[in-house]
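We include this case.
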Amino acid sequence: MNKKSRSTILRYVILVVVGIIMIYPVVWLFFASFKSNDELFGSASLLPKAFTWDSYIQGWKGSGQYGYSTFFLNTIKLVIPTVLFTVISSAVVAYGFARFKFPFKKILFALMISTLMLPNAVVIIPKYMLFRDLGWIDSYNPFIVPAIFAGYPFFIFMLVQFFRGVPRELDEAATIDGCNSFTIFLRIMLPLSKPALFSAGIFQFMWTWNDFFNSLVYINSVNKLTLPLALRVSLDASASVNWNQIMAMALVSILPCILIFFFAQKHFVEGIATTGMKG
C-alpha cells in the first residue's frame, strides 16, 4: 500500500468518525422516542427494550385543545410564503445591484450590507414597536411582509455575487435580439442562477422552520403557534412531562429539514461552487 492510499484511507476514517459523532444525537433522539418515560431515565442503553408507538400517537394529539396537525399547518403557512417571497424579491433586488447603474448605488449597497452586522437583539425592539403600531402582532405578517420587500440582505448579497459572475456578453447578445431588462432577467439570469436560488430557498426554509425567538416575540395565540413554540408549550403543560412524547414530536418536527437537506444537498454544493458560467 503506497503513501497516497494510506492517506486516502485515513481521510475516510476521520470523515466516518466525525460523521458518526455528529449524527449520534439524532440517532439517540430516534430511539429515545420509542422508549417509555421510566426507561428513558432509567436505562443508558441506546436501543429500547420494547419499541412502542404510543409516544407518537399521544404526542401528535397534543396536550390541550390543539394538536400537532394544527401546529404543522401553522408552520407551513408561515414558512412557504416567506421562502417564496424571499427568493423572488431577493433575486429582483440582486439583479438591480448587479446589472444596473443608478444614483447612490454604492451607498445603498453599503447600507444594505451594514444591516448584516446588526445583531437581532439590537433591532428586535424597534421592529416589535413598528409591527405593533401596524397591528401585525399575533400574525405571520412580521415574517411574510419583510420577505416581500427583500428584507433579508444576506440572500441579496449572495445572489449579487452570483449575478456578477454571469458574463455581461449574454445581456448584450439578448439586447441585440430585442430582449428588454425584464426578459433578460426571466430568460437568462434566473435559469442560470437556479443553484443559488435553491440555496437561498433551502437556507431560508431551515432558518424559518426552526425559528423560535422571533415566533415567540410576535405570536401569542395558541392556535397560531409554530412547531418550535408548540414543543416549548408542551414542556409547560403539566408538572410531569412526558419526555418520550416530546422526543417523538421533536423528531417529527426536524424531519422535513433533514429530508430537504439530503434530497437537495447537491444544490448546496452547486450554489457554493458555481460563480457563473464555466468555459
Q: What stands out?
A: The radius of gyration is 24 Å. The domain at 68-273 is CATH 1.10.3720.10 (MetI-like fold).
